[in-house]
Design goal:
- The protein is of the alpha/beta class.
- The chain folds into two domains: 250 residues, 3-Layer(bba) Sandwich (FAD/NAD(P)-binding domain); 164 residues, no CATH class.
- The protein contains 17 helices and 24 strands.
- The strands form six sheets. Strands 1, 2, 3, 4, 5, 6, 7, 18 and 19 form a nine-stranded mixed β-sheet that branches.
- The longest helix is centred in the last third of the chain and has 22 residues.
- The two termini are 41 Å apart.
- 48% of the residues are buried.
């Protein structure tokens, strides 16, 4: 470990970072290089990569175009890394993050294969006491939790699971050693983003693939292809302008978003526009490029789903299977895209099981029993997703002021300010925590880390020991986040976006749905007021302390 001072029972540093993905790596870089702080970082993985370290299942790849799914803090980095595909595979993204770690000497600050067990704010010392699963204790003035939106795996327990004589894998904890699925009878439980990629990749090589579907998904093609060198060249020629436009868009996905309402045109024009975007591929483009109201207008939403439904029925030859694959809910989840997904069901070796009609009863020694039928399998893959947004944070015991634990504070719902802080937890920052903007993540990570860095710099420069949002600021942000979400269709559909995929988890809004540009304006307002109006310094109103 580097840059640490040691006492007999505790290792003292200026700052601790938890997480080794996009957010964690940039946090270490910014705290060290922009603020000159000593930094100790941790990850329970064996190396950098975050979700891309763990999610190495067959077919794993980004569903965000790579010209916006990357770092922008260093133009030289952007220019030197050569992406091969529009939607790169996991191996390429992991190699990119490894290159970033090497280029900026970030691994030297990490302790890998380490789980953080507790984070306790010492009110007397005004520092965070960090305890690891190895029994180590660290003391840090500043804490940055970059633990990942989609990192806490959701691993359901099925009756009889221990009886199964074959292999069981979770998509988000895929082995590092090769898994041979060629000629195997494979069952996949789950049809979210990971599930559909697995189906597309495994169906041509398996002896038989059985897909256990609870909820049908609106899936559009990705149209995988090499990345357009002309696009990258145009970005390089207008690098600062492109990055500005990316951050001051609604979704931060790097394509031109529509400013036309579907309700303002006739039905034929709507369908023509959706067909055009469908042919070009990309889930987020399909939702936001054709029209600007798919997420808010029932008219626009229906036009979008009519086109996808038509393509499902045209693609899947068995009309009964096709109808099972056509969702009955709104197009108001995280948009999915994948090539070859619906085509997989035309293979005679692929079986679709509707577990709403015939629920999984148990795992058996030979496979899975759903309803009255036993499906014999060699391998079962749990593509059951994540305890998203708050899951990883709540798996760490965290205690702020006056003995308040994060588990108690967030028992009924997650309370946060700007997705970066929570009241009564001073000098504790989150990257893409609850109530962050519902957008492409890497650009938001950078913007939030820059915001966090400015907040820490202000704390240091003001001579205060701590900074945190006021209770009113947090309540106001929660109210604004809820009102922006209520103006959309997303609350009308159950998904991981609102916590509905985890039994017992509060089904509430977890995002700011007002768009990235509005979010940037809110961050600017806090900077312009020098973190005064909505913050506490040393537990007191910042304006009073500064006066």
């Amino acid at each position: 470990m580097s840059n640490v001072a040691t006492r007999p029972d505790v290792i003292e540093v200026d700052s601790v970072v938890i997480g080794g993905g996009f957010a964690g790596l940039y946090s270490v870089h910014a705290l060290r290089d922009n603020l000159g702080l000593t930094v100790q970082a941790f990850d329970n993985a064996g190396d950098v990569g975050g979700t891309w370290y763990w999610n190495r299942y067959p077919g794993a790849r980004s569903d965000t175009e790579v010209n916006a799914y990357c770092y922008f803090f260093d133009k030289e980095l952007y220019n030197e890394w050569k992406w091969s595909e529009r939607y790169p595979r996991q191996t390429e993204i992991l190699a990119y993050l490894g290159h970033v770690a090497d280029r900026y000497d970030l691994r030297n600050h990490y302790q890998f294969n380490t789980q953080i067990e507790s984070l306790v704010f010492d009110e007397k010392a005004e520092r965070w006491r960090v305890t690891t699963d190895k029994g180590q204790q660290f003391s840090a003035r500043f804490l940055v939790e970059a633990v990942g939106l989609l990192s806490a795996t959701n691993v359901p327990e099925f009756p009889g699971q221990e009886k199964f004589g074959g292999e069981i894998y979770h998509s988000a904890r895929w082995p590092h050693e090769p898994v041979d699925l060629v000629g195997k009878r494979v069952g996949i439980i789950g049809t979210g983003s990971s599930g559909i990629q697995l189906v597309s990749e495994i169906s041509p090589i398996a002896e038989h693939l059985t897909v256990f579907q609870r909820t049908a998904q609106w899936v559009v093609p990705s149209r995988h292809r090499p990345i357009d060198p002309g696009l990258l060249e145009s970005i390089r020629e207008n690098y600062d302008g492109y990055h500005h436009d990316l951050l001051y868009s609604t979704t931060a996905f790097g394509f031109t978003e529509s400013n036309v309402s579907a309700e303002s045109v006739d039905e034929a024009t709507r369908h023509e526009a959706f067909e055009k975007v469908y042919d070009d591929g990309g889930g987020f483009q399909y939702m936001f490029k054709a029209f600007n109201d798919v997420g808010t207008s029932l008219v626009a939403n229906k036009a979008a789903t009519d086109v996808i439904g038509k393509h499902i029925r045209e693609t899947v030859r068995d009309p009964i299977v096709a109808e099972l694959l056509v969702p009955t809910d709104l197009y108001a989840k995280r948009p999915l895209c994948c090539d070859g997904y619906f085509e997989a069901y035309n293979l005679p070796t692929t079986t679709l099981v509707d577990v709403k009609k015939t629920p999984i009863v148990e795992f058996t020694e030979k496979g899975i029993r759903a309803g009255d039928t036993e499906y014999e399998l060699d391998v079962i893959v749990l593509a059951t997703g994540f305890d998203a947004v708050s899951g990883n944070q709540l798996r760490i015991f965290q205690q702020g002021r006056n003995g308040l634990t994060l588990q108690d504070k967030w028992r009924d719902r997650t309370h946060a300010y700007m997705g970066t802080m929570t009241a009564d937890f001073p000098n504790m920052y989150m990257v893409y925590g609850p109530m962050s903007p519902f957008t492409n993540q890497p650009p938001v990570h950078e913007a939030q880390v820059n915001f966090i860095t400015d907040a820490i710099r202000h704390t240091i420069d003001s001579g205060a020991a701590t900074l945190e949002p006021s209770q009113k600021a947090e309540e106001d942000w929660m109210e604004l986040s809820d009102s922006t979400a209520a103006a959309t269709l997303f609350p009308k559909v159950n998904s991981w976006i609102n916590g509905a995929n985890i039994p017992g988890k509060p089904v509430r809004n977890y995002f700011f749905m007002g768009g990235m540009a509005a979010y940037m304006d809110h961050m600017k307002a806090d900077r312009d007021t020098e973190f005064g109006e909505r913050f506490l310094l040393d537990g007191q109103p910042a304006e009073r302390v500064n006066a």
